[in-house]
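Consider a typical record:
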Amino acid sequence: MVSSPLLRWCFASGFFGATAGVLGKVTFESAEVTAARCSYVIPDSDLCAEGAPILTGLRLLGLTLLILSNLLALHAFNGALRAAKASLEASAVATAANLVFTAAYGRALFGETLALSWWAGAALIALGVALLGQEDKEKEE
């Protein structure tokens, strides 16, 4: 059974890892897309014209938050490793949490739909990790 502290650390790691992915996507997208997103938030304004200083500031903020999110993900994963009986346990739960948060972000922020093949791939990853965990348990006994 997975312990409660391990779950908290793994969910935090998955959340911050997925957040870093979103920040990377948004921070390093093309200038046209960044200007369009800015214009959506601040309509009818020259503040969002390509090359405007606000866009550079937003990219620097995004980069800062990206680095911070990655550091928090690594800190949380380190906590998960400390709370786990085996590193595989922490890796499996953190990976699963990351997949769930990535799917949720994709749907909520970018309107992405996940094909059946994505869900099948996620299920195969979970199955593979579970099989590896079983093998480790058998070796211990």
